[in-house]
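Sync notes, pocket subgroup
Present: LS, DG
LS reminded everyone that the earlier model was apo-only. Rerun requested with calcium ion included. Inputs:
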Amino acid sequence: MRSFKLFALTSLAGALALAGCSSSIDDGEWAQHGRTADEQRYSPLEEINASNVDRLGLAWSFDLDTRRGQEATPIMVDGVLYTSTAWSKVVALDAKSGKLLWEFDPEVPREWAVRGCCDVVNRGVAVQDGKVLIGTFDGRLIALDAKNGNQIWSVDTIIDRDRYYTITGAPRIVKGKVLIGNGGGEFGVRGYVTAYDLHSGNEAWRFFTVPGDPSKPFENPILEKAAETWTGEWWKVGGGGTVWDSMAYDPDLDLLYIGVGNGSPWNPAERSPEGGDNLFISSIVALRPDTGEYVWHYQTTPGDQWDYTATQHMILADLEIDGEQREVIMQAPKNGFFYVLDRATGEFISAEPFAPVNWADGIDPETGRPNIKPEARYHEAGVWEGLPGPLGAHNWHPMAYSPDTGLVYIPSQTLGFPYIADTDFEMKELAVNLGIDLAAASLPADQAIREAVKDTLQGHLLAWDPVKQEERWSVPLGGPWNGGILATSGDLVFQGNRNGEFAAYDARDGSKLWSADAQTGVVAAPITYSIDGEQYVAIVAGWGGILPLLIGELAWVDGKPQVNRSRVLVYKLDGNAQLPEPYDVARTKSIAPANFGSPQQISQGANIYARYCSGCHGDTAVSGGVLPDLRYSFSLSDRDVWDAILVNGALTQSGMVAFGSELDEAEREALRSYITHRAHESGAVAIARAEQEDAGQ
Ligand code: CA
């Protein structure tokens, strides 16, 4: 009797768990960030398939009011499409017609932009039980009423507002708790993830990913163990390990997986000078979602010093490996290896490089540790031309897994970086804090060298066999920073790309079956849904994110900057809506003053530019197209205007913070002389003059 009762209770709990699952997974909906908690980004819909996708046409579009990077995956439930946009705004649209139902603006202070490494992007909302959850760039987690967008509750998720924390990731909801982490690993912060009650907003638990000051009590027992893998005074510089993007959940194992970011500062000499693995940076960590209790971890890059985050998208799947059915978790982190782990235990199963890698000679199958090349340790060995670089062989752009083909589809890229230690490093306000000499790592002025570097950059839609750990097929896309991926039961994979195209490929062999002009680079991932028996495919288009901000000219397409035209684009079979003719975004046509400043001043300006400005305005003062190209700035020729912006914050409302507190008069003048010098050296002045003459001015 007793055992029967136990059995009955167990099966009742099981039935409830199943009911809880299935009620939220409707084939026609896209109710969670990765569609399902396993984050496969695979839809069973097949009305649109390989045989008819050439009939796909625009059903509707919706223009967004921000011209910054759009990285969100929308949610579609109950006929409403919810998406976040740049500056953490939210729109709710009728998913069939595109009609605006409501919009929400959390009014993020624009001067907060300088606190983020990677554009004022947002990767999505979560929706459940009539609530829409958004994490804001300035660190709030806000619950909105799904019916009208009214705010229900708001909490401050940031533990220390003097440190540069930001939120760009999508919240996840597991068992009535909203989970959110943050970014900041480029500025010197300590990473953590927090769970809040969905209904009240009350904090349920918080898990720190790296230990704090060991003279104070550890927040949980595992951090005492983790502290043994650190040396020096890491807590003063933060340590890193931010949970800025990926999570997944297995309801059967009741495990929540979080992807953990890089060490902060990057240079280990500034963080943990005597070495050590520095747990749990660059790791996948499994936690109990009810309590935040640690269960297991796997560190992809022990002692990371290259910004090789393990925050990249994680997919749960069941694979047959060596004749055995395995419950696995898969990740293609920045470091270039594709990992397959046992998701119950964290046991290493296999890893192989999915892109060119030169920092490690493979992963030891016994220990699961990479064989790191000594010369890659740039803080000891000098300059290291690393491959991948800090933007990764794969960044946040979501991959997808199709159980039909058994393949994982990865937006992979090849993009190196010269890692050079900054031997005079000190922590600064309003600047990135990496411990890397960014001026020395900048591109040389010589145009032939710049073109040669550009030619080495690659991007692919890569179909990867996770069992055999080998490429099945790939499609070259002309360069890095292409969109996330959707796989469907219609034997299709969808992806937008840097070239301003949204395309469908045959999931089996990669042949391109359809494409549309998105009028802007696409970096976000598409979704699909069905209403009244009709299937739709949706994508949020809009060029941006760290790559076009940071690498400037290297991010150009066909010899010019890609333009941001932010829109929600939705397609269906025989859709016949039209996009308006692409509008042009005018460049400020001013002419820089004559060159001024001594070589020392220009060189000092180059250093200041690299540390304070290049992360947004582009390497060596050439913009990638999203933010203003300072070589054309009207302020260059007028020192009063220059100071009005840099000291008095004249452009704060546009997101340009005042640097007057950090840069003194001589430094500001050195910066102005460097950008002026670059305007002449790069030919921008000549171009601006020719354009003004053409316009008859
Ligand atoms: Ca990072």
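DG: The chain has eleven helices and 39 strands.
LS: The chain has a mean pLDDT of 94.
Action: DG to write up.
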